[in-house]
Structure formats: structure tokens, C-alpha cells
Amino acid sequence: MPEALPEDLSDLTFDTVVAGGGTAGCVLANRLSATGERVALVEAGPDFGHSRGGAWPPVLNDARYVPTPYDWGYHVAPYGYDIPFIRGRVLGGSSVINAAGINWGLREDYARWVELGAEGWGFEDLRPFLLKVERLRGDDAPGRGRDGALFVSRDRATSPLLDDLRRAYAAAGLPGPIDASGPDAAEGWGDGTRNADGDERYHAARAYLDDVRDRPNLTVIGDTLIDRVLWDGDTVTGVAVVRDGRPSQLRARRVVLAAGAIGTPTVLQRSGIGDAAALAPILGDGVPLHHLPGVGRNLHDHYGSRLFMRTAPGFAERLAARGHVPGTRQSLFARVKSDPALPAYDLSIGVNHGDTAPPDGLLPITVFLVHLAAEGSVTIADADPHSHPVIDLDIGRDEDLDAIARGLRWLRRRLADPAVRDWFAPEAAPEASESAVGDADLREYVRRNIFLFHHATGTGRLGPARDPLAVAGLDGRVHGFTNLYIGDASLMPSIPRGMMILTVYAMAEKIAAGLVATAPVPR
After folding, report:
1. What sequence ranges are listed for the domain Glucose-methanol-choline oxidoreductase N-terminal (predicted)?
2. Of 302, 353, 454, 455, which residue is the catalytic one?
């Protein structure tokens, strides 16, 4: 085990500092320390040690919950009402506090990256790394990973309600069952997959750090906030951090930013790396600037809205009478096109229910837009690393709202199918009947009832140096620097469909493989 940390971190020097201990950071720390180089993994949130060492709060290993006490506390308010914007602040990052859903993006998603200039990042380029991550057990879906680092399981619940909903989907011509988390299904219904075994969560700290914590050349530093990158000309020399309220520094021969699509661009901006005209008045005179206008741009996140169905009397009794297995996870996913002319699905419809009727009698069914026009930004408000940034998700474009509204309308028709309708009383929201809400009203309902997926991506995107908005080259190296890299979701040129965390793991694996090939010689 590494020795206890000194009070003054400036006494420490590393070959590589991985700045951010979330999903990508855990991957990078594992793979880079395997070479023998001295690696520091720095995380703003707590490090509870080995995930089975007894110190982790049980809620963090329970896939049924989203434990927001380990969240950064960000919010957005696009239409005057507050929406939490959840990002994990704990070793393992958002993989520790998310809903544990996991899927591959479509082949078309990664082809789009190549179209945007990310040569070498198409589906076949990423596929070996997706396989290196995924360990899907007890499943015969072709082409999925079987031997990777991260345990993945299929939802196999048999619910009478969902069986009836499958019949309604089939009657509407929606194919199924499909691999609703695979890379090839354009439309259809099927069971999803989760990085969990029953209710037990498998997160990045468990999958990538538990087995390597004893490496003497790996130092995990929790409760330490990354302030900025230290740089001179085209070379970084380390990072400035805040630990126990005291500023300090970590010296390094290389820095890899893995603080996520919000943390990574704001660290860069506090470092003077970004849009020089915007940063100059924030950082003040005398702060050197490196002009990279794409830093913080291209922010994407999936979002949608929910239909609230009031369960009919006797809901739980009907479940039991038809052979429902108590205690199982009941979920069904549908991939749907909001417009038949689209080349691939753009809506993900998720239905989940428990063993009994919901306490308030309302069952929410979510329609998420997973291929969208919105393109936002994140910008520091000031130079204080403790301050929340300004997050603009650009959500609410009419074309996006219309697509979600069409999804709600499609779902309503399926729920009115004779196979399903007796499960529910009149709809609670948006209205009691479809005829009561026209297109404009339904769009306005969506605008007032936005629900986020919390899938922030794209704010330090890959691309060639000739692209004025590209932040990092195809190897993850930040343009204009010799030894500063990005290895997280910031790199995505566009957002994949569905739950994008598997893609984050795979991108970190690919960046790590490139860094290992050019690793500093340990000294």
C-alpha cells in the first residue's frame, strides 16, 4: 500500500496525474499504473477504500437508489423551475450514483463521430474496447462482451403488466424481443441491461480499482478538489488542488483530465485554456491564456418527459393473481422513431414498476429523446474552484419538444390497447384523454415537465487541430500542449443514444491504450 499522504502534497511527484476519479479516471488509473509508472488518481469526493472493505455506505453499492448526497449539487432552470443536474462526487463518479442502466450506442452514433472529424473512433475502432469493458453474464445476445472488467446483467423480470404491454407493442407493429441495449436494433422492444447483479451495483471503483489498490506506484487521493492545470508554454507541470481547505500542488510529467463533461472544461477554463475573449474578464489581468474556443462548448444531455398513469384498483392483486414473482425488477424498454422517416430510433421509452401500486397511485412512464438537436455549454462563473459553473443545456428546442410530444402520443395509444388499458384508471398527466391535449398543448406540457438523463458529454471534443472548435486530438492530447490529455466523456463529438456510460468506459480504455504506448519512463 502507498504510504500516508504528507500534509504538503507539493512534496509529491508523479509520472501521471489523473485529475478526476470518476468512471474514466478509474479506468485510466488502472491501465496506466499497470505499466509501472507512478500514477496519482485525484478525486474531489470521498474515497471509501476497497468497495467490499466495509467502509462504503451501503446505499452506494445498491443499484436501486440514486444517492444524491454524493452529488455536486448542480441545477439548471431553463424555464423558471429548478431541475437537478446530477453528477457523482465520490470515487467512481456517476457510475456510483446513476440508475445503473447500460447499453451500447448504435453503429450510426460512432459513424457520426468520424463524419465530424474523429478518424479512428468509428464503431469498429471502439468495438474492441467496448468488449474489454463489458462482462455480460447469463445471456446469449450475439456480439456482446463476455470477459470484460465490468459485470453486466440482463433484466429478466416477468411482469403480467409488462407482458400485456409487449402484446400492445407487437399489435402496433413494433418488433420484439430485441437486444434493447445492443448496437444494431433500430426499433423494437426488449429487456435492458444494467451494471448490477440484482440490486448490487457494479461501479467503476469496484471494477477497476479494487484489484489494483495495492500497487505501490498507484496513489488514490480523495477529498481533493482540482483547481487548475499548471502550465508553461506548451508543457504542463502538474495541477493545483485544494485539500482540507488548503491550496497545494501535485507535480507531474503528464496530466490526464478525467473530471467529466462539467469538471474537465471548467478546470481548463480556470487554467486560462478556452475562449480567450470570454476568460480574460473572469480571470483578470496577468493570467496567461491559451485560446481554445471549443472548451465548454458542444454540451449534450438526453432529456424527455413523463406520462403519469393512475393505477386501477386492485393493481397489486392482479399482479399476484397472474403469477408475478415478488422482489424482481420489472422493466421494459422500447426503441421508437418519432418520425418514420428517421434512419434510426430517437426515443427510448422506459416502464418500471414495483410489486405493489405506487404509494400515490401514479405510475410514471418516461419518454426520453436520445438523438437531439440541443447543444449547450458550460462556463466558469469566476476563478473560485468551489463555485458552480453556468450550465446551459439548450434544452427545449421546438424540434426536440415535438419529438418527445410525439413519443408521448404514441405511448398513449399503446396504453389504450385492450391488452393494457384495464391496468389503469384515467390518465393523471398531462390530461385525462388524448383529445384534451392538442399538439401545441402537449409540447408545452413537455416544456414544463422536463426530465433529465444526466448524460453530460462533448465539452472537450475530439477533432483535428484544423477544426476551430476541437479541443483534443484523436489521441486525447489537448491542442497546443505536449503532455496534457483528456480521457473522459468530454471527448465525445456527439452523444450516443441511450445510456452512454459504457461508451465512457470504452473511450477511457482507448485513450489509456494510446497513453501506455507513449508512457513516460518511470524514474
Report:
1. 260-274
2. 455
